[in-house]
Every structure is written in structure tokens, then in C-alpha cells.
Amino acid sequence: MFVRHDDCPLEDLGNGVRRRILAHGGALMQVEVHFDAGAAGPLHSHPHEQLTHVLSGAFEFTIGEDTRVVRAGDTLYKRPGVVHGCRCLEAGVLLDTFTPQRQDFLGGQAARHWPGGPTT
Fold first, then answer.
1. Nearest of 118, 113, 50, 43 to residue 80 by alpha carbon
2. Which of 49, 52, 67, 101 could crosslink 76 through cysteines, CB 3.0-4.6 Å?
3. Per DSSP, what are the bridge partners of residue 68?
4. Cis, peptide link before residue 42, omega less than 30° from 0
5. pLDDT 10s digit of each residue in the chain, 120 long?
């Protein structure tokens, strides 16, 4: 399967966060998340494994009890069920990979997944 970036709409999730669902199939899903400076992904957890690669910008991330500043080129691993969240320090883009797929992201169900604001 080939997925063209231009064919994937950028969905406005509010509060300075936008999401683009990229390739997904089988047990994998890849998602771009765009943050304006000052936007946040509130602390949350989910049953999916997640890798986050920082494509641009700077973020203060919390994973479990650990909080660190990450920048372009850094990668984070979040095990299933771990509480995590971020605050965008400099406008940027994250590339998230989930397994299994985030079924709640499919079908434009952002409002149900992001009731208190964006999460990543």
C-alpha cells in the first residue's frame, strides 16, 4: 500500500492541535500531530503501544513519572497503559506509530477521543 501525504486530510482538533492519519492497516497506524506553541496533549493513557518521533519543534513530555524536553530527532516509547502527555514549547510536528491501530481515530471520531483537549 502507498499513502500519499497530500491524500491525507489535516483534521483540526482544536486548541492548537491538528492530526493527519497516514498509513494504517493490520496492527499498525501512523499519525502526524501538529502543535502550535503552547498547545498541550493532556495526561492520558491507552492500551496501545506507541512510538513518537519528533519531526520538528520542542516539547515537554511526561511519560509515567519522568518529564523531559525533547526536540527534532528524538524518539519516545510509551508502553500500553502508561500515563503520558506533552506541552509544546516550540511549534512542531510529532509522528506517532501505534499498535494496534487506534480505531477511535478512524471515522472522524476526534471529539469522542479528545473531550478535554488533544492527546498524543
1. 50
2. 52
3. 61
4. no
5. 899 999 999 999 999 999 999 999 999 999 999 999 999 999 999 999 999 999 999 999 999 999 999 999 999 999 999 999 999 999 999 999 999 999 889 875 443 334 344 444
DSSP of the chain? ----GGGS-EEEEETTEEEEEEEEETTEEEEEEEE-TT-EEEEE--SSEEEEEEEEEEEEEEETTEEEEEETT-EEEE-TT--EEEEEEEEEEEEEEEES--GGGTTS-HHHH-TTS---
Query: Measured between alpha carbons, how far is 6 from 19 in angstroms, rounded to an integer?
Result: 13
Question: Is the overall model pTM greater than 0.90, yes or no?
Answer: no
* Grid cell locating 24: 494504517
Question: Amino acid letter at 52?
Answer: T
Which grid coordinates belong to 26? 493490520
